[in-house]
Amino acid sequence: MSTDFRDLDRRAADFYLTFVAQVKPADLTLATPCSDWTLHGLLRHQVSQDEGFAAAARGDGGDLQVWRNGSLGDDPHAAARASLDLVTGAFAEEGVPDRPFLMPEVTDRPVPGRMAVSFHFVDLVVHAWDVAATLGLPWEPSAEMLEASLAVAALVPTDDATRGPGLAFDRAVPAPEDVSPGDRLLTLLGRSPSWAPSQYRWV
């Protein structure tokens, strides 16, 4: 992959934050499309991933615990913004696209920086859907985001060591050939587009 995804990643961060900004304290116990996590767990996971990617950009991503130590504190939106500022700043450093990233949650081999950034980008786009679906909100990424996300999703490993409950992505979900680009992305990354919570919060 030769594309520099850093600008798209910044835009995906803003897109993701538009949904996190709408989370209320009572929402944190809601179930999400990721069966392992409540909304609190999902948001904490993304903060952890941001911190892991930032560490990897600095050459310190080899310790798996670095990818799992995120905290929401008392303000999930502030925590999400802080972790995204951290990773965006790390990605902006000169030479990042050509640096080797250690990403033990995905592979035991170094990943080229430009590919690692693309993985973070697609993670934000689909986790934005997770939050939106949990809250019953529309998820409408731009056509450019969807096209780029689909290209990245095709590169995500599909073996049992990297796909399944508790791993970076669940196994792909079967989908008809004429599915929309957004639904195609969700199914490729282990999500059912028809998922809905058992009940929505009162708005």
Entry summary:
This protein is an all-alpha fold and 203 residues long.
Order of helices and strands: HHHEEHHH
Query: How would you sum up the major sheet?
Result: 2 strands, antiparallel
Number of strands: 2
Low-pLDDT runs of 5+ residues are: none
Average pLDDT reading: 89
Distance between the termini: 42 Å
Topology:
Blueprint: H1 6-20, H2 39-57, H3 76-91, E1 100-101, E2 111-112, H4 113-135, H5 143-153, H6 181-188
Antiparallel strand pairs: 1-2
Description:
The structure is a single chain. It contains six helices and two strands, in the order αααββααα. It has 203 residues and is mostly helical. α1 runs parallel beside α4.
List keywords for this structure.
203 residues, mainly alpha, 6 helices
